[in-house]
TrEMBL record:
PANTHER family, alphabetized: LEUCINE-SPECIFIC-BINDING PROTEIN, PERIPLASMIC BINDING PROTEIN OF ABC TRANSPORTER FOR NATURAL AMINO ACIDS
Keywords on record: Amino-acid transport, Signal, Transport
Pfam families membership: Peripla_BP_6 (PF13458)
Keyword Chloroplast listed: no
Protein name as catalogued: Branched-chain amino acid ABC transporter substrate-binding protein
Domain Leucine-binding protein: residue ranges: 50-395
Family: Belongs to the leucine-binding protein family.
Organism: Faecalibacterium prausnitzii
Matching InterPro entries: BCAA_transport, Leu-bd, Leu_Ile_Val-bd, Peripla_BP_I, TAT_signal, TAT_signal_bac_arc
A Gene Ontology BP annotation from the UniProt entry: amino acid transport
Signal sequence coordinates: 1-34
Length: 405
């Protein structure tokens, strides 16, 4: 039987020191979006006609492109639930805050949300703040669904075989992505020689790279070169020249799209024109690379554009623009997951915010089947989703679904 982690052990395992941050000011502000003209927080709590859900992410700062997409996707889903009559007649009150991409701010925001009476949380977005919030949430046993934090330790500590009992995710993990892309490179594309270039010191990049290497070699392939760079680097020609000299058939580049665009341009400039492969951090890359640089490249993602016309139309109607990247549908699915759990707790007649209510939400999610934009999925014993992966390639410089794999 898997162990359930305590807050003290989680903090030690994650290396997170967040408790000191609860007295600092929280980035952003709290807001209610149940409906226009909604009652004040105190009045809503007293009436019992609303159910408070927190939506947390970086709305400003370096990673706001991801946070805004997740928050928008989640908020859209919760608003739709209200328009459909809420949950057993109760409206969802959305309490949204900006944690600015900072773990300490994220904990501050989370504790403020708890003070305001949330019953579940959609969030956080990137790995470090999510780990900090997950550690803090253990004391509250707060149902928490992250749309996009991919580090395995968000939901499960492999060293101690411990599941973080209140935490779930709707995206796949770093190890999963690395393995999937290695399998696809070998089994579908027929590559036998690959190189890897990744940013060192970052859980996401290192996690994908490490697992790609292990799986590619397990499939009988050869890793001819592994190159890394540091945060803030903008010149990758030394690493790429080394890769060029080793003669790979493909290069796995598990980095975020801004850096990938620079790497592809510099690879082209030195004559390294083999196809590149990537993970979900490539989502949005088409604006940073040419069609020629993207030719014959593939990456894995949770969602392929065009998979849900209803969602894409609703997003544009709500926000006045196309959904920006795959983090928006993941945010939508995280909110759908939270709603699934809340429905079960409401059907049981429990008091919103009580210990029994929160546990009922957690239990329902753990045993549920979620009909999401990114697929129909259940959760495994580590609280990670069990679903297929979308493999995308580029046609005339734009990502298109190749197949589900």
């Amino acid at each position: 039987m898997k162990k359930m982690i305590t807050r003290r052990n989680f903090l030690a395992a994650a290396g997170v020191v967040a408790a000191a941050g609860v007295l600092t000011a929280c980035g952003g502000s709290s807001s209610s979006a149940a409906a226009s003209g909604a009652a004040s927080t105190a009045g809503a709590a007293a009436s019992g006609d609303t159910i408070k859900v927190g939506v947390l992410g970086p709305l400003t700062g370096d990673v706001s492109v991801y946070g805004q997409a997740v928050v928008n996707g989640a908020t859209l889903r919760l608003k739709q639930a209200n328009e459909e009559g809420g949950i057993n007649g109760k409206q969802i009150e959305i309490i949204s805050m900006d944690e600015q991409g900072d773990p300490t701010q994220a904990v501050t925001c989370f504790t403020k949300m708890c003070d305001q009476g949330i019953t579940a949380l959609v969030g956080d977005v990137t790995t470090a703040p999510t780990l900090a919030v997950a550690a803090e949430s253990a004391d509250y046993n707060m149902p928490m669904v992250t749309a996009s934090a991919t580090a395995e330790s968000v939901t499960y500590d492999a060293e101690t075989d411990t599941v973080n009992g209140n935490v779930f995710r709707t995206t796949f993990t770093d190890p999963f992505q690395g393995v999937k892309m290695a399998d696809y490179a070998c089994q579908k594309l027929g590559y036998t020689k690959a190189a890897v270039i990744f940013k060192k010191g970052a859980d996401y990049n290192e996690g994908l790279a490490e697992n790609f290497v292990k799986e590619f070699e397990a499939q009988g392939g050869t890793i001819v070169d592994q190159e890394s760079y540091s945060d803030g680097d903008v010149d990758f020609k030394t690493q790429l020249t080394s890769i060029l000299g080793k003669g790979p058939e493909t290069v796995f580049c598990p980095n975020y799209y801004q850096e990938v665009g620079q790497i592809l341009a510099q690879a082209e400039s030195i004559g390294l024109t083999v196809p590149f492969l990537g993970g979900d951090g490539w989502d949005g890359l088409e604006g940073y690379a040419t069609a020629e640089q993207l030719k014959d490249s593939y990456f894995c993602a949770n969602y392929a554009k065009g998979a849900s016309a209803d969602f894409e139309s609703a997003y544009k109607a709500e926000y006045g623009e196309d959904y920006p990247n795959g983090f928006a549908p993941l945010g939508y699915d995280a909110a759908t997951t939270v709603l699934y759990g809340i429905q079960a707790a409401e059907d049981a007649g429990l008091e919103a915010g009580s210990d029994e209510y929160k546990q009922a939400v957690i239990d329902a999610i753990a045993g549920g089947t979620i009909e999401g934009l990114t697929g129909t999925f259940t959760f495994d014993e580590h609280h990670d989703p069990v679903k297929s992966t979308a493999i995308l390639t580029y046609i005339d410089g734009k990502p298109e679904l190749k197949e589900m794999f």
